[in-house]
Amino acid sequence: MAKKKLEIDFAKAFAELEDIASWFEQGEPDLDEGMKRYERASELAKSLKEKLDEAENRIKEIKNS
User: Fold this and answer.
1) pLDDT for res 5
2) Cα 53 to chain center, whole Å?
3) How many whole angstroms separate alpha carbon 17 and alpha carbon 11?
4) Which long-range contacts (C-beta less than 8 Å, at least 24 apart) are formed by 20-27?
5) Phi, psi angle pair for 59, to nearest 5°
6) What is the pLDDT of residue 6?
7) What does the pLDDT look like over 18-62, one tens digit per residue?
8) Quick count: other Cβ atoms within 10 Å of Cβ 37?
9) What would you report as the CA-atom Rg of the chain, rounded to the nearest whole angstrom?
10) Are 14 and 49 in contact (CB under 8 A)?
11) Rounded to whole angstroms, how far apart are CA atoms 47 and 8?
């Protein structure tokens, strides 16, 4: 069975990623919490990249039609 692709709200995901980056910049983070946030940031970054790739492909399709 194919894995269903989750739709993300680009603006909300980007804002969450920025919040995680700010948390890391604030000083000495807790290691366990840092690992959880790093994992979440990785997931967000992957989803955002996929969304941007989709948009780029769609733009190329529009330009070539």
Assistant:
1) 53
2) 12
3) 10
4) 20/44
5) -65, -40
6) 59
7) 999 999 999 877 999 999 999 999 999 999 999 999 999 999 999
8) 18
9) 16
10) no
11) 7
Residue with tokens 């039609």: 65
Cβ 40 vs Cβ 20: under 8 Å: yes
> C-alpha 9: how far from its chain's center?
10
What pLDDT is stored for residue 31 in this prediction? Answer: 93
Q: Which two tokens stand for residue 63?
A: 């330009």
Of 39, 37, 47, 38, residue with least CA distance to 13: 47
Residue partners of 21: CB distance under 8 A and separation at least 6? 41
State the residue for tokens 């920025």.
18
- Note the maximum CA span of the chain: 52
The owner of tokens 């990249």 is 49
